[in-house]
Specification:
The chain is about 30% helix and about 30% strand. A hairpin with a 2-residue loop joins strand 3 and strand 4. Helix 1 runs parallel beside helix 2. About 25% of the residues are buried.
Length: about 80
């Protein structure tokens, strides 16, 4: 899912740039576990493998990817927490 304008501003941020999978996926899972429904987590990462691994994990957990953007050689993914 590619995103231009964002309907929901992030309420929480996670920066896992510099880490390789499976760390970005595990840290994202842990961060989401501490959030209530309706919150938006922005995850910044630079491992291209995370771009492939995060969406299926989020789908299994029932969360929604709002946007994925490439920003200066890394990525920013905004995720809506679904209760």
């Amino acid at each position: 899912m590619q995103g231009g304008g964002q309907a929901n501003a992030p309420t929480h941020r996670l920066d896992v740039r510099g880490f390789r999978c499976p760390i970005p996926v595990g840290e994202t899972r842990q961060a989401l576990g501490g959030l209530e429904g309706g919150h938006v987590l922005e995850v910044r990462f630079d491992d291209p493998e995370a771009l492939e691994d995060l969406p299926p994990m989020l789908a299994r957990q029932g969360h929604r990817v709002l946007s994925i953007e490439e920003v200066a050689g890394d990525w920013r993914m905004c995720i809506e927490v679904i209760a």
